[in-house]
């Protein structure tokens, strides 16, 4: 791969609670700029653990050890004095379960901009809210009710609202964790179309359990198994000519069972707001 926006260097994540579990094991990857990389693999293989370690999201929970490094455009994410909220601003995160802030549709998008003071006037803020609602194909559905609570939207609309909220602070990388798995098929298709539109402007890293979704959206594929990278390649080569035997089995639909003691994510759904 060339022109990587985000890289990992022997990144390892270990849970140290009741039992010690190494969920991600010495992963070194490059995530190409302005492309969508899908992380796939069987349930419990470390996909979401890897994703959340890319912007230090695991630091909000106890009993986690991380070694190795992540770099964003050549700058370390871990070996830095930069405030954590600034890192998470540059590497945004959209969770599996869409959760609007208890605010209006307008204020959900404006929230991060207000926190970081990144607007010049009320008119500028209005323009930015509209811009990012348009980016996620939501503006025409909500322009006449921006003062309504975000929670009143449909689940699919809320997921796009969460995307707009993440994009409003201009991240360099967007992390998406199973962002369509809780949606109905029509809403999921709309979110997929939005991601397809966004990937030319943003570096997107997406965890998905759907092989079909990875085929449709991804430029690059990372296949993870028991916390280790089995194979990574461009999407066409990965699906049409997989190299590793385990990849061939997985692509063919046979899958690979994960032992019960291979704990992927312990306490894997922290509540995260943009300022964290």
TrEMBL record:
Gene Ontology BP, a term: phosphate ion transmembrane transport
Domain ABC transporter residue range list: 6-251
Stretch forming the signal peptide: none
Entry GO CC: membrane
Ranges for region Disordered: 253-276
Keyword Repeat set for record: no
InterPro entries to which the protein is assigned, alphabetical: AAA+_ATPase, ABC_transporter-like_ATP-bd, P-loop_NTPase, PstB-like
CDD domains per the UniProt record, alphabetical: ABC_PstB_phosphate_transporter (cd03260)
GO molecular function term, any single one: ATP hydrolysis activity
SMART domains: AAA
Keywords (A to Z) from UniProt: ATP-binding, Cell membrane, Membrane, Nucleotide-binding
Coiled-coil region(s): none
PANTHER family, per the entry: ABC TRANSPORTER I FAMILY MEMBER 17
This protein's name: ABC-type phosphate transport system, ATPase component
Organism for this UniProt entry: Natrarchaeobaculum sulfurireducens
């Amino acid at each position: 791969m060339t022109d990587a926006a985000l890289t990992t260097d022997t990144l390892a994540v270990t849970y140290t609670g009741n039992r010690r579990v190494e969920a991600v094991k010495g992963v070194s990857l490059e995530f190409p700029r302005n492309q969508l990389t899908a992380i796939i693999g069987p349930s419990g293989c470390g996909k979401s653990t890897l994703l959340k370690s890319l912007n230090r999201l695991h630091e909000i929970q106890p009993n986690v050890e991380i070694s190795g490094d992540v770099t964003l455009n050549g700058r370390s994410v871990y070996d830095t004095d930069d405030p954590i909220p600034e890192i998470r601003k540059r590497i945004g995160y959209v969770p599996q379960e869409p959760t609007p802030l208890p605010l209006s549709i307008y204020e959900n998008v404006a929230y991060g901009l207000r926190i970081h003071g990144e607007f010049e006037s009320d008119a500028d803020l209005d323009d930015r809210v509209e811009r990012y609602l348009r980016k996620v194909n939501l503006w025409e559905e909500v322009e006449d009710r921006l003062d309504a609570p975000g929670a009143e939207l449909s689940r699919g609309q809320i997921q796009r609202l969460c995307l707009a909220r993440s994009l409003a602070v201009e991240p360099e990388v967007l992390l998406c964790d199973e962002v369509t798995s809780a949606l109905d098929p029509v809403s999921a298709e709309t979110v997929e179309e939005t991601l397809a539109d966004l990937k030319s402007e943003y570096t997107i890293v997406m965890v998905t359990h759907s092989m079909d979704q990875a085929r449709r959206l991804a430029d690059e594929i990372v296949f993870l198994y028991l916390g280790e990278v089995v194979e990574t390649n461009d999407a066409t080569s990965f699906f049409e000519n997989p190299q590793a035997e385990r990849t061939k089995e997985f692509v063919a639909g046979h899958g690979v069972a994960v032992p019960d003691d291979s704990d992927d994510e312990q306490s894997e759904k922290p509540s995260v707001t943009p300022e964290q």
